[in-house]
Amino acid sequence: METRIELIQGDITKLKVDAIVNAANPSLLGGGGVDGAIHKAAGPGLVEVCRLLGGCKTGEAKITKGYKLPAQFIIHTVGPVWGVGDRHEEELLASCYRKSLAHATVHDCKTIAFPNISTGVYHFPKELAASIAIREVKNYLSANAIPEKVSFVCFDDENFMIYQQLLDQ
Ligand code: ADP
Predict the structure, then answer these.
(1) What percentage of the chain exceeds 90 in pLDDT?
(2) Which CATH code for domain 5-168?
(3) Domain ranges of the chain
(4) Which of 10, 79, 100, 160 shows the smallest number of beta carbons within 10 Å?
(5) What is the pTM of this model?
Protein backbone atom coordinates (compact mmCIF):
# COMPACT_ATOMS: atom_id res chain seq x y z
CA MET A 1 0.00 0.00 0.00
CA GLU A 2 1.17 3.55 -0.75
CA THR A 3 2.72 4.77 2.53
CA ARG A 4 0.86 8.09 2.50
CA ILE A 5 -2.51 6.29 2.43
CA GLU A 6 -4.03 4.60 5.47
CA LEU A 7 -7.16 2.49 5.83
CA ILE A 8 -9.16 2.68 9.06
CA GLN A 9 -12.42 1.12 10.12
CA GLY A 10 -14.46 3.19 12.57
CA ASP A 11 -16.04 6.51 13.42
CA ILE A 12 -14.47 9.50 11.66
CA THR A 13 -15.57 11.92 14.40
CA LYS A 14 -13.05 10.35 16.80
CA LEU A 15 -9.95 10.98 14.69
CA LYS A 16 -7.23 13.39 15.77
CA VAL A 17 -6.28 14.54 12.30
CA ASP A 18 -5.87 18.05 10.92
CA ALA A 19 -9.05 17.76 8.84
CA ILE A 20 -11.94 15.36 8.46
CA VAL A 21 -14.19 15.43 5.43
CA ASN A 22 -17.95 15.52 5.83
CA ALA A 23 -20.28 13.93 3.27
CA ALA A 24 -22.69 16.85 3.58
CA ASN A 25 -25.90 17.75 1.76
CA PRO A 26 -26.29 20.96 -0.26
CA SER A 27 -27.83 22.90 2.65
CA LEU A 28 -24.74 22.27 4.84
CA LEU A 29 -27.14 22.34 7.78
CA GLY A 30 -26.67 18.73 8.87
CA GLY A 31 -28.49 15.51 8.09
CA GLY A 32 -28.23 11.79 8.74
CA GLY A 33 -25.32 9.36 8.46
CA VAL A 34 -21.82 10.72 8.81
CA ASP A 35 -23.10 14.30 8.49
CA GLY A 36 -25.36 13.87 11.53
CA ALA A 37 -22.56 12.23 13.52
CA ILE A 38 -20.17 15.10 12.72
CA HIS A 39 -22.68 17.82 13.65
CA LYS A 40 -23.54 16.02 16.88
CA ALA A 41 -19.89 15.62 17.88
CA ALA A 42 -18.83 19.12 16.79
CA GLY A 43 -21.63 20.83 18.75
CA PRO A 44 -23.95 23.73 17.88
CA GLY A 45 -21.15 26.13 16.89
CA LEU A 46 -20.86 24.21 13.62
CA VAL A 47 -24.39 24.70 12.33
CA GLU A 48 -24.26 28.38 13.32
CA VAL A 49 -21.31 29.02 11.02
CA CYS A 50 -22.67 26.68 8.34
CA ARG A 51 -25.77 28.90 8.10
CA LEU A 52 -23.50 31.70 6.89
CA LEU A 53 -21.91 29.65 4.11
CA GLY A 54 -24.87 29.74 1.73
CA GLY A 55 -24.91 26.01 1.03
CA CYS A 56 -22.61 24.04 -1.26
CA LYS A 57 -23.04 22.66 -4.78
CA THR A 58 -22.58 19.00 -5.62
CA GLY A 59 -18.92 18.29 -6.31
CA GLU A 60 -17.76 21.39 -4.41
CA ALA A 61 -16.28 21.72 -0.90
CA LYS A 62 -16.24 24.32 1.89
CA ILE A 63 -14.14 24.39 5.07
CA THR A 64 -14.97 25.23 8.68
CA LYS A 65 -13.24 24.81 11.99
CA GLY A 66 -13.76 21.53 13.85
CA TYR A 67 -15.37 23.03 16.98
CA LYS A 68 -15.57 20.28 19.62
CA LEU A 69 -14.06 17.62 17.37
CA PRO A 70 -10.50 16.40 17.87
CA ALA A 71 -9.95 17.41 14.22
CA GLN A 72 -8.96 21.06 13.66
CA PHE A 73 -10.97 21.50 10.44
CA ILE A 74 -14.03 20.01 8.76
CA ILE A 75 -14.13 20.03 4.97
CA HIS A 76 -17.77 19.77 3.88
CA THR A 77 -18.27 18.30 0.45
CA VAL A 78 -21.49 17.37 -1.32
CA GLY A 79 -21.35 14.06 -3.14
CA PRO A 80 -23.63 13.20 -6.06
CA VAL A 81 -26.85 11.25 -5.57
CA TRP A 82 -26.53 8.12 -7.72
CA GLY A 83 -28.96 7.84 -10.61
CA VAL A 84 -30.53 11.29 -10.73
CA GLY A 85 -29.95 14.50 -12.64
CA ASP A 86 -27.57 14.71 -15.57
CA ARG A 87 -25.65 11.55 -14.62
CA HIS A 88 -22.20 13.03 -14.23
CA GLU A 89 -21.92 11.21 -10.92
CA GLU A 90 -18.45 9.77 -11.46
CA GLU A 91 -16.92 13.14 -12.36
CA LEU A 92 -18.75 14.86 -9.51
CA LEU A 93 -17.50 12.32 -6.96
CA ALA A 94 -13.93 12.73 -8.26
CA SER A 95 -14.36 16.48 -7.89
CA CYS A 96 -15.37 16.07 -4.21
CA TYR A 97 -12.06 14.36 -3.48
CA ARG A 98 -9.96 16.83 -5.48
CA LYS A 99 -11.61 19.96 -4.03
CA SER A 100 -11.41 18.59 -0.47
CA LEU A 101 -7.72 17.83 -0.91
CA ALA A 102 -7.14 21.33 -2.31
CA HIS A 103 -8.67 22.86 0.85
CA ALA A 104 -6.35 20.67 2.93
CA THR A 105 -3.32 21.96 1.02
CA VAL A 106 -4.36 25.62 1.34
CA HIS A 107 -4.91 25.24 5.11
CA ASP A 108 -1.69 23.27 5.55
CA CYS A 109 -3.49 20.17 6.80
CA LYS A 110 -0.88 17.46 6.93
CA THR A 111 -3.39 14.75 7.81
CA ILE A 112 -6.88 14.37 6.38
CA ALA A 113 -9.51 11.64 6.73
CA PHE A 114 -12.28 10.85 4.23
CA PRO A 115 -15.50 8.92 4.78
CA ASN A 116 -16.93 6.91 1.87
CA ILE A 117 -18.68 9.86 0.25
CA SER A 118 -22.05 9.16 -1.45
CA THR A 119 -22.10 5.45 -0.55
CA GLY A 120 -24.80 5.77 2.13
CA VAL A 121 -28.20 7.28 1.43
CA TYR A 122 -26.87 8.70 -1.87
CA HIS A 123 -26.50 5.08 -3.12
CA PHE A 124 -23.35 5.43 -5.22
CA PRO A 125 -22.10 1.87 -5.98
CA LYS A 126 -19.47 1.17 -3.34
CA GLU A 127 -16.79 -0.43 -5.51
CA LEU A 128 -16.96 2.27 -8.13
CA ALA A 129 -16.89 4.97 -5.45
CA ALA A 130 -13.83 3.38 -3.80
CA SER A 131 -11.93 3.11 -7.08
CA ILE A 132 -12.63 6.78 -7.87
CA ALA A 133 -11.60 7.85 -4.33
CA ILE A 134 -8.34 5.90 -4.43
CA ARG A 135 -7.48 7.07 -7.95
CA GLU A 136 -8.06 10.73 -7.10
CA VAL A 137 -6.13 10.59 -3.82
CA LYS A 138 -3.18 8.82 -5.45
CA ASN A 139 -3.10 11.33 -8.29
CA TYR A 140 -3.27 14.25 -5.90
CA LEU A 141 -0.56 12.91 -3.59
CA SER A 142 1.79 12.33 -6.50
CA ALA A 143 1.55 16.04 -7.36
CA ASN A 144 1.36 17.61 -3.85
CA ALA A 145 3.46 17.32 -0.67
CA ILE A 146 0.57 18.46 1.58
CA PRO A 147 -1.41 16.61 2.82
CA GLU A 148 1.28 14.20 3.87
CA LYS A 149 -1.16 11.48 4.84
CA VAL A 150 -4.70 10.57 3.77
CA SER A 151 -6.89 8.17 5.76
CA PHE A 152 -9.89 6.39 4.26
CA VAL A 153 -12.31 5.77 7.10
CA CYS A 154 -14.77 2.96 6.46
CA PHE A 155 -17.71 2.63 8.80
CA ASP A 156 -19.30 -0.47 7.33
CA ASP A 157 -17.65 -3.86 6.75
CA GLU A 158 -18.48 -3.92 3.05
CA ASN A 159 -16.62 -0.69 2.30
CA PHE A 160 -13.71 -1.75 4.50
CA MET A 161 -13.28 -5.00 2.56
CA ILE A 162 -13.56 -3.21 -0.80
CA TYR A 163 -10.88 -0.67 0.18
CA GLN A 164 -8.62 -3.39 1.59
CA GLN A 165 -8.76 -5.26 -1.71
CA LEU A 166 -8.26 -2.22 -3.91
CA LEU A 167 -5.42 -0.76 -1.83
CA ASP A 168 -3.58 -4.10 -1.76
CA GLN A 169 -3.45 -4.26 -5.55
P1 ADP B 1 -24.07 10.15 1.59
O2 ADP B 1 -25.31 10.99 1.71
O3 ADP B 1 -22.91 10.90 0.97
O4 ADP B 1 -24.32 8.83 0.96
P5 ADP B 1 -23.98 8.94 4.27
O6 ADP B 1 -23.61 9.61 5.54
O7 ADP B 1 -25.36 8.39 4.14
O8 ADP B 1 -23.62 9.98 3.11
O9 ADP B 1 -22.96 7.76 3.99
C10 ADP B 1 -21.64 7.94 3.60
C11 ADP B 1 -20.77 6.88 4.27
O12 ADP B 1 -20.49 7.31 5.61
C13 ADP B 1 -21.43 5.51 4.38
O14 ADP B 1 -20.53 4.55 3.86
C15 ADP B 1 -21.63 5.31 5.89
O16 ADP B 1 -21.43 3.95 6.24
C17 ADP B 1 -20.53 6.17 6.45
N18 ADP B 1 -20.67 6.65 7.84
C19 ADP B 1 -21.78 6.81 8.58
N20 ADP B 1 -21.48 7.27 9.82
C21 ADP B 1 -20.12 7.39 9.87
C22 ADP B 1 -19.16 7.80 10.86
N23 ADP B 1 -19.53 8.20 12.06
N24 ADP B 1 -17.83 7.78 10.53
C25 ADP B 1 -17.43 7.40 9.29
N26 ADP B 1 -18.27 7.01 8.33
C27 ADP B 1 -19.59 7.00 8.59
Answers:
(1) 95
(2) 3.40.220.10
(3) 5-168
(4) 10
(5) 0.97
